[in-house]
Amino acid sequence: MAAVTRLSTRASFVSSIANRYLSSDLTSHAPLRLVPTRGEDQKNTHVRWVFLGCPGVGKGTYASRLSNLLGVPHIATGDLVREELASSGPLSSQLSEIVNKGQLVSDEIIINLLSKRLLAGEAKGALGFILDGFPRTIKQAEILEGVTDIDLVINLRLQEDVLLEKCIGRRICNQCGGNFNVASIDIKAENGSPGIVMAPLLPPVNCMSKLITRSDDTELVVKERLRIYNELSRPVEEFYRNRGKLLEFNLPGGIPESWPKLLHALNLDDYEDKHSAAA
Ligand SMILES: [Zn+2]
């Protein structure tokens, strides 16, 4: 594998151009805070977070909202892959075959795309990131440890039948690129487990006739993705649990129910109040 550049963990987020295999030095790093302090200049925020969770659980949605709230880039490896696919670059035909079968893209490809993106963000002065869709395997988690330090890993959880229904309900507008979901989930509480209500996320009227389903959102492909997730990615939860970095979050429903509870779990409810008041 190509040498991977390790990104600095210091407040300035300056690159230290060191090979990852040389990175186990004794350099002392400033202690990292999980959450920026109220009233603090965003330039001093340290957010290096990872979102874990089954495909379709909503990692992208929550990662994107948090990145807007905290002012750090949301880096989705799925988007990195799709950008590469659309670029008709040297990797695109190889990638399209892998993606259409619902298989995982190789570590080498993902790490190359991700390192490129982290360095580009750093060059533009980004002061942290929220990763979504990476790491997916223990091996990737180990490689990521050599590339940068992660402060917190948020594991989003939702029962599998709901996940499946949500994935099959995904739609994209082929004109504006908007993401929508036609699944309407209403599971009654039983045997002590709480019910789950998730309203569909319907498009505006002018997008309605332009909705398409991505070729990898069929039931077969989604089930295959879940099987692969359980086999390869479940152990990643344990990896971060052992390092004391895993925050488990059971989604109580759709975004209106889940978002405030997630902010509370992250100790950010004041943060949002402050920002909405300032807006
Ligand atoms: Zn549209």
TrEMBL record:
Keywords: Kinase, Nucleotide-binding, Transferase. CDD domains: ADK. PROSITE patterns: ADENYLATE_KINASE (PS00113). It catalyses: AMP + ATP = 2 ADP. It is an enzyme of class 2 (transferase). Its EC number is 2.7.4.3. It holds the Pfam family ADK. SUPFAM superfamilies: P-loop containing nucleoside triphosphate hydrolases. Monomer. PANTHER family: NUCLEOTIDE KINASE (PTHR23359). Belongs to the adenylate kinase family. This is adenylate kinase. It comes from Vicia faba.
